[in-house]
Amino acid sequence: DAGITQSPRHKVTETGTPVTLRCHQTENHRYMYWYRQDPGHGLRLIHYSYGVKDTDKGEVSDGYSVSRSKTEDFLLTLESATSSQTSVYFCAISDPGSVMIEAFFGQGTRLTVV
Amino acid sequence: DAKTTQPNSMESNEEEPVHLPCNHSTISGTDYIHWYRQLPSQGPEYVIHGLTSNVNNRMASLAIAEDRKSSTLILHRATLRDAAVYYCILSSGTYKYIFGTGTRLKVLA
Asked: What is the pLDDT of residues A42-65, one digit of tens each?
């Protein structure tokens, strides 16, 4: 299994509070991604990073910010959580310039905003 | 970003071949075609990818149309463990993997 760790795995938080989810990799892959998954919507890309301090928006970036200060860590922050951000969040990594082109996904973080 | 279209659901009998179609009529010349699957309560996992030629690996085969506007993932002998949501996605030059809603495959014993 690719070395991807998401933390926390489960979190319940109150509306209006800040929340940070962490994705940690041990594979030295250049690209990292954050997705959210809701029933009936498949996976939707929130933000992605193509290197340290290099990030870009995905399909559903409103209300989320990200940071990548080290190759191995990609943080997703909800500045003020809302109930619509209740979801399962997946982190993924890939290294498109290498032989192994595929993306590897973490086990997910289930976030509930009450 | 080029989009893909897949049927919402398909059924197959166990130990029979399954052909999962994907349309990508706006694919560009440099887009790779990727397939991932997501088992219940897990993150997606890579299945196969290709550019122009048909591809085989231990999990599946990928048949790509000559005009590249469609592709088919082939599971040669479906098992109950193959029941999952299968996603066909295109990787553009920005490597933004955009997933659709996929095809939910049900395998009947």
From this structure: 899 999 999 999 999 999 999 999
What is chain A's length?
114
Confidence check: pLDDT of A99 > 70: no
**Tokens 């997910």 found at:** A108
Q: Is residue B84 a contact partner of residue B40, using CB atoms and an 8 Å limit?
A: yes
**Dist CA A39 CA A42 (whole Å):** 7
| CB pair distance less than 8 Å for A42 and B101 | yes
Name A30's Cβ contacts closer than 8 Å, sequence gap at least 6: A50, A51, A71, A94, A95, A96, A97
CB-based contact, A54 to chain B, within 8 Å: no
Mean pLDDT of A75-97: 94
